[in-house]
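Thread: "does anyone have the structure for this chain?"

Original post by V.I.:
We have the sequence but no experimental structure in hand. Need at least a predicted one for the grant figures.
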Amino acid sequence: MSEPSPGVYFDIPFDEYRAWPGINYSSIAKGAKSMRLMHHAMTTQTPPTAAMALGKLTHLAVLEPDRFEDVLCIKAGRKTGAFKGAQAETDEDIYTVAEYEQAAALRDVVMDQPEARRLVAHSKHEVCLVWDRPEKYGRGKIRIDMMGDDYFADLKTARDIALPAMVREFTGRYGRQYELQWGWFWEALEQLNGGYPGFDGWVIAVETGTVPDAYAAKVNGDLIKHGQERAVEIARQYHAADVVGIYTGADGGDIPEIYLPDYLKEDWSPDDNNNTAGAQHENG
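Reply from O.Q.:
Generated one for you, tokens below.
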């Protein structure tokens, strides 16, 4: 299935989904910074970091337990020659025993949370959606962790799941901007259903520190809608850049200006005789 028709698909291996054409969330998150970075994400496969590998393994443990039991493990560190040599001999992902044990412990913490357990139990897992919106950006795709009858949920691993820290990850230009992912899912449902999706959003946050922790949190609908609007605009910009083959960097194709931030304006004004610029001028 090289290019599926618009719809919802189950039981699709990740490598097959990744080969499908279409704009996805992870690329859109890069596009929030620049079209050049988004184009690299759309056209280049980068090796996973250790944190990404643990996140993927935890997803398997919680959402695909049968596959988790069959993963390949080696008693060596990820950076050792033995591990790299073993990985080079197979196309399958290899994990360390320590990673496997940590993922199993994180799974147990998740499943001890009643709300998280409910979300996992009453949903389909690793669901793929494909749709077309030719007048805006062409083809879109997304793979969501959990999809129930009237909700979707995503499993996120992080070193700190205190709510202020996670909110920074959910939004803003310097976090992981998960609002774009949730908004892109709403966009998928809206285009496939022909109207407002009506799905609640949830996140299961899992802390990977020394003392594992987890909780399930509901995502505000306004945040998801905001993420949808941003995601659609970034996808539209990329589609336009792709048509002409010009992918601008962080400057957006213009000459940027380093501005005076608002937090400095409160304590400084151009008329202030004690400002740094004036002092430098007088000493010049």
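V.I.: this helps a lot. The longest helix spans residues 221-244.
O.Q.: and The chain has 13 helices and eight strands.
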